[in-house]
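Long-time lurker. I teach an intro course on protein structure, and each term I like to show students one example going from raw sequence to a predicted 3D structure in token notation. This year I'd like something fresh instead of my usual example. Would anyone be willing to generate the tokens for the chain below so I can use it in lecture? Attribution to the forum is fine with me.
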Amino acid sequence: MKKFIKKIFEYSLYLFVFLLPLQTCFIIRNSIINGDKWQYGTICFYLTDVILIVLLLSGFYNLILKIKERQQIKIKKKWRITIITILGLFITYSFISISLAIDKELAYYSAIKLASAIALVFIILNTKINWKKVLIIFIISAVLQAGLGIWQFLNQETFSNHWLGISSYNPSDVGVSVVQTIQGRRWLRSYGGFQHPNIFSGYLSIALLLAIGLYLKIQKSTKNYPNLFQNYFILFNIIILFTGLLTSFSRASWIATGGAYISILFFKLIKKDKRDLLSLFKIFLIFILISGIFGFIFKEAFIARLSINNRLEVKSITERSEYFKQAKDLIKDNWLLGVGIGNYTLANYNKIGKKYPAWYFQPVHNTYLLIFAELGAIGATFFLSFFILLFYKSLKLLPKILKNNDFTIIFFSCLLSLFIMMFFDHWLWSLHFGILLFWLIFGIYLKFLVANDKKF
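-- Reply from a regular --
Happy to contribute to a lecture. Here you go:
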């Protein structure tokens, strides 16, 4: 029975990671504002939720067995106890904030999603997992999404599929994410299987960094020459992922990926790892080559996207500025306790007035401000404090991390990429996929960090 439950957990995790991008869901509640669908008030039960429930139940069962067998869960280090305590307080306050919410049903839904994702972190910390398999499955799933995104961009169309949770987007339709050239042509940005190109690109950014980590690992798999098949296979995946990232035209993800790549390079320079530095240089040349070819073929689209004087870019900047002003006003009135988890857009709707259509009410495009607005100074303090502690501990353990030569550096770069994206967008807090992705990466990084500070 014990081995059977462990197998259920293991394969549930693999399935969860592979199916994570799917938006397949059963809609429990649709919400309407001024006659239009209100996206951020919709309550859904996703296919990945089913797998997550199995994952958590089997994980907690294994944990109980471990306790019964008197295998202590060693949490002797103060910093580990502190992080777990702060996480617990963060979840607790999220549920307390429900009492402040206008839509309490939506707040309960949001709090349960957050609690489930953080519970996954705790399960990851206390379970032995084949991380190489997890990373390979994650990368393969992302490569499939990248391939779909490249196809969408080259064909300038998407298809809808109810079972896969994919919607159809036409570049001529208002509201679809496009790049508009000076000549007036509208280029469809790649969506993959997601709701927006920024989410698609954020996912590919993480997968690309993990693929780079695997590539560096393969280069050291043998003393002289790496396995050629593995070598070229992972390089092929890197090329597909990077190309997909380009077709998203997401500047935030480009910046985040660049910053994360530089962080990997920085750590390798500190370690003076010549072999890894050479491999990173090769990958950089591949990026330059692909960018050059893509930039030459689709020159007008790239120039338009990089220009701040373009009509759509001016509109985007104006809207983001307006969202920041709305968030500032909302925080000013609810700075200590917040408006309640998941209730930002509804609180904004009640504050601004009811003359605008549903699409106008968007979360502020900054995750930190969004958390501040929903959970107030109390919730925001909890959120920021355990990450400050985490990065402080990462710096203290840096000599061990560099010596152990594991994936800690790669997952640090993944977390850094997500933190950079949080300055430019909200989906890592407001949407189902973003919440699961963020806490999954955080949990794995924390596990690797703990491994560098003796066993957990």
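Some talking points for your students: The mean pLDDT is 90. The first strand starts at residue 25 and ends at 29.
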